[in-house]
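Quiz preparation item.
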């Protein structure tokens, strides 16, 4: 806990990066060796996890990050949600953001770092510790800033064939009352040239949410394709960056949630952790 608080505190000065003085002031916090690969870890005896989820738009980062955050008791912090909250508020930032987001472009590193910094500070005030970041970092600059303020234990890179991603984005729906996410897309990609096929059932909402579903303004075909292009240009170098640090775990999703979730837990060596949690509940 103390360690995470230090991280969050150092982040408040470092993340006010408009002055660009963050690297000189950076407080590096030494971390234990990455505990995620190798022997099964006892998550209850160490500080809370500090994980990052990478992956193209539509891959399911939000779904799996949110499930893991409930399992491990750490906040799931999605910078896309922070951006959408800022968009929903009135004021000049909202106007500035809407133009960028609706074209599928990335918000400036400065704005995103500011939003994340505020979120971390608010979490710190509530006693939160650890995190699963979803949608951050998205540029090398953001990765460097994150590396200046804290140690990331593990970067999970979720993967799906490109053909599936557009359909998955176009099928996304959110209930505007309960906030839960669903997906109405039926995915059935045949295997080809030695690559396995992939099928995913839709994740349909319960009847009470059916009339309250909304689609994100930036989930149109044109904007999704722009986001995928930008992801490939700006975010893929992050894979190499974290791979070279020995922190990257690649995970090819084998299908929808019922097939993928147990396999992901296994890959993270958390399969028996989930069993213990359900037994204790
Ligand atoms: N780390 C970030 N850096 C810059 N822009 C971001 C970042 N995270 C989110 N955004 C902005 O918010 C939008 C929505 O983000 P997100 O919900 O993560 O969508 P996606 O489905 O593209 O992964 C992005 O298209 C981008 O404009």
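Solution:
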């Amino acid at each position: 806990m103390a360690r995470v608080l230090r991280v969050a505190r150092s982040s408040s000065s470092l993340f006010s990066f408009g002055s660009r003085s963050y690297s000189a002031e950076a407080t590096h916090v030494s971390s234990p060796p990455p505990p995620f690969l190798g022997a099964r870890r006892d998550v209850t005896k160490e500080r809370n996890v500090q994980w990052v989820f990478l992956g193209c738009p539509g891959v399911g980062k939000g779904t799996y990050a949110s499930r893991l955050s409930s399992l491990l008791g750490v906040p799931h912090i999605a910078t896309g949600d922070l951006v959408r909250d800022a968009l929903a508020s009135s004021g000049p930032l909202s106007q500035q953001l809407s133009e960028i987001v609706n074209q599928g472009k990335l918000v400036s590193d400065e704005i995103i770092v500011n939003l994340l910094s505020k979120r971390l500070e608010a979490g710190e005030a509530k006693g939160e510790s650890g995190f699963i970041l979803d949608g951050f970092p998205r540029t090398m600059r953001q990765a460097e800033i994150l590396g200046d303020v804290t140690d990331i234990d593990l970067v999970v890179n979720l993967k799906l064939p490109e053909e599936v991603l557009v359909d998955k984005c176009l099928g996304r729906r959110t209930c505007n009352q309960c906030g839960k996410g669903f997906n109405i897309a039926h995915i059935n990609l045949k295997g080809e040239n030695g690559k396995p096929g992939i099928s995913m059932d839709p994740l349909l909402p319960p009847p009470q949410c059916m009339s309250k579903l909304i689609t994100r303004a930036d989930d149109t075909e044109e904007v999704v394709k722009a986001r995928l292009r930008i992801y490939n240009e700006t975010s893929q170098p992050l894979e190499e960056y974290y791979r070279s640090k020995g922190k990257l775990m690649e995970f090819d999703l084998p299908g929808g949630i019922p097939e993928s979730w147990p396999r992901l837990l296994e890959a993270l060596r958390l399969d028996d952790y989930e069993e213990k949690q359900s037994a204790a509940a």
